[in-house]
Amino acid sequence: MSHMDSSLSDEDLDEGQSEVKRIRYDSKIYNVSRRFEKHQRPRRTRLASRDSHSFHVKESNLQGLIFDNGAHTIKINYSFEEEPKIIPNCIMKAKSERKRLFIGSQIDECRDCSGLFYLIPSERGYITKWDVQKPIWDFVLSKNVCPVNNYPVIMTQPLFNFKSIQDCIDEIFFEEYEVSSMFRLNPTDLAVLQYHKEIGAKPPCIIVDSGYSFTHVIPYLEGKKYLKGVRRINVGGKLLTNHLKDIISYRQYHVMEETFVINQVKEDTCYVSQDFKSDLKAAELPPSKNHIIRNYVLPDFNNIRRGYIQDRDQKDEIAENCQILRLNNERFTVPEILFHPSDIGIKSIGIAEAVCKSIFSCPLSFQKDLAKNIVCIGGSTKFDGFRDRLFNEVRSMIPASWEVNVYQPSDPITYNWMGGKVLLKDPEFKSKLVTKQEYEECGMSAIQEKFNQWSIIDIEETVQSKPKIEPVSYIDHLKKYDVFGKGIVSEESSENNEKKNENPEESRKCEEEIDVSSKNDGEEKLNLTDDDKFKLP
Amino acid sequence: MMKQFKSQLRGSNRLKEGDKRRVIDETQRRRRHRKIMELLESDNYQDDPHADLVMSKKVPKFEDNLEQRTTRTKKKERTAEYYQTKFRKNFQQLVDEDRIEADIAGRVSYVDVAAEESNLPPRHFCAVCGFFGHYSCVACGMRYCSIKCMETHMDTRCLKWTA
Ligand SMILES: [Zn+2]
Ligand SMILES: [Zn+2]
């Protein structure tokens, strides 16, 4: 039908044209909703079905307060609740209201959000402004939001959270808030727990966490972080919004002061391109032929509280009196920075490259499984097309015979919080909690050890122990049965062992094994030629 | 073709004019880039709208609009400034301390996990319009795609950052 009709459009009949326009418009809606559907559908139905017959261990019914302290938003609630409350982790000042400050979600009470001034407690994701963070925590833990009420507190902190920051958190929580017990871990640790629960298995996985301050790629082997495989890219939502503000201010309106609004523009209009070059070409076309271009109606905080993309064909009435922002290549060149930080001169690999580098810096035996279990969390992974682009790029850099799987949870922002529920169900978890008493008796350093070491895998030992087991048992086996007689084969196999083992300590152990066997058999075997070996029974 | 040639001519005239301006050397270009990167990390580009209230001591306090928290012992409550004074450290200090600690403990540190440089060749974009930019400005090294964008660049940002 659409073919026939579009040929009609060449005729300059008014009616015919508007008809065609309507049809085109409908098909666009159709595409959008289909994409939406695809996005919502759980991608791992196959694995999800396994959920029922795993995790036989008796679950603990310990409840707690799960506190995901993100640099942009705090995700907090009790473990018995369905989902977390999402609270901005900042204090805001409005031009229009000079008698008060807006802490966290109090911003909902602010009538005019133009020109908001932000007090943000973190720098590059790490808390440095305690005079800002403390009042926000006071708010979050106040009677009407989420008082601690003696529940154990599970709190997230960024990777490598610096010691003096942890000291301060300890002092605030144990001494002032008087929490009875607490545990701190990285948000990605919780994501792994949630992922393992969802798929009903515990494979090694890579967590791609692209948030507000930075992007982390963290491999988890046997449920624990493998630090040698970690990559951090200093690109996150904050940088993308600021960059968008900068280019809009240069090309159209001065919006440098409108972080609140432009962040929404980013969320509403930006997407990750699947074919960057061709999208850039398409964006060069004049507006009538350009499928990239969008008009965005800016909020005036009078009639319109939140901006939106204007219908391409129905110019609505309100929009006539409003400021309209035109977005073209900005829509995809901004999120593109996640994949090519060098586009704005940041000397760093992009996300997909980081995922591959991370996989290949892990021990060989884990690599295939890692490629199969890539999980994206964090607000900056929510751009349309993010998952598909990451998949395609990683796919192209990984051996063709390996399976690649990129999983995006339906809500990549609350995913970590959900993992907190899983942690509380672990019967072992209760013993990991640090109590107020322990804090008072052992001091900060001792308890921080408990927080920071629990999820890191001890690299060398685990990796090297794998090849160790096989050769030793093989030699034992041969010695026991003397299958080929006189242990020559054992010498051969030990040669192979040495090649396999790169760890010097490891090969020394193997040499000791050889010594034992060669003592029994005498030295003449060493002089045997290949032919001689062949003649042996 | 002819037209293009003409405009190129016009462009080179423009460049001669530009020669009279200062040309920024490599060190200055790097400093300018660092400045841009810092700006991309900043929380605000405007001044505190309540700044004038500080002098008149009418600054709204955090406590003013906070419900009472359920602390059991009131005397343990401390002001936010107490923590800020006790634990004040800027980001660079924290990173440096972490590096020293990591060296002693033989662990991986914050700086160690920074992603490496890419092997892929960098792409260049017009600083004005955002499309591919194949030419670079003689004065500052920024990219542009056309004579039109070059002129805009010259008139606006070219030497803006070089103070
Ligand atoms: Zn241009
Ligand atoms: Zn220039």
Automatic annotation (TrEMBL), chain A:
- Chief localization class? cytoplasm
| Biased composition range(s): Basic and acidic residues | 496-537
Q: Which GO terms describe its cellular component?
A: cytoskeleton; Swr1 complex
- Which UniProt key words apply to this protein? Cytoplasm, Cytoskeleton, Nucleus
Segments for region (Disordered): 491-537
Any idea where this protein resides?
A: Cytoplasm, Cytoskeleton; Nucleus
Q: Which domain of life is it from?
A: Eukaryota
Q: Say if the entry is tagged with keyword Secreted.
A: no
Q: Name the Gene3D superfamilies on file.
A: 3.30.420.40, Actin, Chain A, domain 2, Actin, Chain A, domain 4
Q: Which SUPFAM superfamilies match?
A: Actin-like ATPase domain
| One MF annotation (Gene Ontology) recorded for this entry | nucleosome binding
Q: Which family does it belong to?
A: Belongs to the actin family. ARP6 subfamily.
Question: Could you tell me what this protein is called?
Answer: Actin-related protein 6
Organism name = Tribolium castaneum (Red flour beetle)
Q: What is the lineage of its organism?
A: Eukaryota, Metazoa, Ecdysozoa, Arthropoda, Hexapoda
Name of the gene encoding the protein in the UniProt record: AUGUSTUS-3.0.2_08881
Automatic annotation (TrEMBL), chain B:
Biased segments, Polar residues type = 1-11
Query: Where in the sequence does UniProt note compositional bias of the Basic and acidic residues kind?
Result: 14-28
Q: Which domain of life is it from?
A: Eukaryota
Q: Where is this region: Disordered?
A: 1-29
Instruction: List GO BP terms, alphabetically.
Output: chromatin remodeling
**Would the keyword Zinc-finger turn up in this protein's UniProt record?**
yes
UniProt GO cellular component terms: Swr1 complex
Q: Does the keyword ATP-binding apply?
A: no
Question: What residues does the HIT-type domain cover?
Answer: 126-158
Keywords recorded for this protein, A-Z: Metal-binding, Zinc, Zinc-finger
Which Pfam family is an annotated match for this chain, by its short name? zf-HIT
**GO MF entries:** nucleosome binding; zinc ion binding
Q: What is this protein called?
A: Zinc finger HIT domain-containing protein 1-like Protein
Q: Which organism is it from?
A: Tribolium castaneum (Red flour beetle)
Q: Which gene encodes it?
A: AUGUSTUS-3.0.2_10523
